[in-house]
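Lecture notes, structural biology module. Today: joint structure prediction for complexes of two components.
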Amino acid sequence: MRWLTENDIEHIAVGAAVLGTGGGGDPFIGKMMALGAIDKHGPVKVINIDELKDDDFVLPVSGMGAPSVLVEKIPSFDQLVNPLKAYEEAIGKKVTVIMPIEVGGVNSLIPVAVAAMTGLPILDGDAMGRAFPEAQMVSFHLDGLKPELVTMADEQGNHVTIRPVNGLWSEKLSRQVTVAMGGSTIVSDYGVDGKQAKKSVIPNTLTLAQKIGELLEKRTEAVHPIEKMLQLLKGRLLFKGKAQLIKRGIQGGFTRGEAHFTGMDDDEHSECILYFQNEHLIAKRDGRPIALTPDLIAVLDEETGMPITTEGLRYGARVIIVAFPAHEKWRTPIGIETAGPRYFKYDVDYVPLEQLHEEELS
Amino acid sequence: MRWLTENDIEHIAVGAAVLGTGGGGDPFIGKMMALGAIDKHGPVKVINIDELKDDDFVLPVSGMGAPSVLVEKIPSFDQLVNPLKAYEEAIGKKVTVIMPIEVGGVNSLIPVAVAAMTGLPILDGDAMGRAFPEAQMVSFHLDGLKPELVTMADEQGNHVTIRPVNGLWSEKLSRQVTVAMGGSTIVSDYGVDGKQAKKSVIPNTLTLAQKIGELLEKRTEAVHPIEKMLQLLKGRLLFKGKAQLIKRGIQGGFTRGEAHFTGMDDDEHSECILYFQNEHLIAKRDGRPIALTPDLIAVLDEETGMPITTEGLRYGARVIIVAFPAHEKWRTPIGIETAGPRYFKYDVDYVPLEQLHEEELS
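The predicted structure, tokenised, for the full assembly:
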């Protein structure tokens, strides 16, 4: 157990932008919300999964929709807390612990704001181990759980409760409600007891985001922060280059597109293309896959190592593209079926990051 | 109190196609559902509003979405009854009377099917006195009531409960959920006690639909059925002509468009245009309005007097276009604001049907 400091939250916001560069939204909005809520309602206690009691009731809270919309209409107190209240009412049980559904982007810190507002502790863990663009891409789904109940609220005061037949319908219905509600909502789904949470939650991910933030901010001359990050996350440097053509389009409630980079230094004469649906999903170098979802692909500023979000990427940016292995839960057949390249309609089979680069090691 | 016979249902289906030629859907699907349910579960009792007890709980049940989709996926027993069950659970009260939200199109008979399935009586009355395309176009809204609760179900087993801030948000959110659910859903909204129903319901409209059906089917040589219908509904014959250009497009979940007619007989050398959003909303003759929503416009087969739905209208059809005055509730300022021409973005003020044709009488 520990209390989150203002510094911790600053670092989580930075680290969260590495773990979720798109769909999760701009984590700095999350930082504003979390700091504002703590300032008004008091500090937030973080607990880890070992501290959960079997009969705890753990509820994820997250934002759904387009990050660009969230900036325009910052959620109100009522909107942030209403899905939780509706959830409690529907199941006739009190929530005892809040958790992030994804530690990546704005959704790392929205639940911290809700924890402050309700006085509940926040769990150090999430259901993705990163950010993914769709609602059913969670460890609960991999463990065979259905989202029995989804509660949603907008800033107008509208509430919607969905009882979907499965995770895919949950995604489809909640996505459309989000569109109808103006493009961004607050959502609670996959409420579980402490016993189930201990099984399904990917642990220590808030702390992981915080560590990434710390090493990016607390710079030393000796080792470049990107080097330290690769060590921490067992990742690989994929490509060093300059952003060229960036194609983006809104399709089915997502930002889809691709970003092209021409190589620099060791990568001169090579080209890298990233394909994204909110999050970067596929990286190819000269036509050959070099990283594939569910492994995580991130774009970092060459100079500072700071993450560049999908929305923030601009022509001419000098970047380092890195990749990190997904949590082992994502590398199972159900994990690959749920968030692998073919789910996103890319015509390529998943190969783990390490295996893609085996020849480089040998 | 009376029991609905198979013949009554046949007649209601025909009359309902006069009172709702578009958004309400093909009433013959409703007939199939009602007859099927009665065959399986037993007969349906009709009560009128004087028979309501103050503490009755009256719940409308209706279909939402595109009629063409409904034909493809006839609702199952579960889908028809689930919104009612979800409503009862959410408010902790038992429904005692079913009512149609609109007597027009398929929604006249879907609630009859639900009444058969649940063994509850159906109210002889509705909340429109005709069909209208949007969810908030109901007498409850005119009386200042909010749809506190909207329950929806699809044929997959998905359930959605909406607590909207007002009628317009109810329409917006439930329409999007309907789109996400594949284009057609079963909905319950505006549940009220018997006391409120007595105030707000437009009475005797199931019987009215039945009477229209009877006079169209039980033909005598003496008086043309259209003539009898105009007497019954205090309507006017607007135009006799042949269908020419028909423009239709799907826009925001509705079928919008216009239908052009060239005149025959007394109307030779004239042109009539109908503008529709699911329902016919405006009729113009040579550019001059001759009938305006919320007054009802219907297109009838010249020969038989049988109604032609918006979807069923074809090039070359020889038709008689008629109009009937809306119920007085719709001719109030709030009624005109809710369902008058300007709500539908037509640049013309509402003028009652009788007034538009005053000069013809004088």
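Point to remember: Chain A touches chain B at residues 156-165, 169, 172-173, 175-177, 179-181 (CB under 8 Å).
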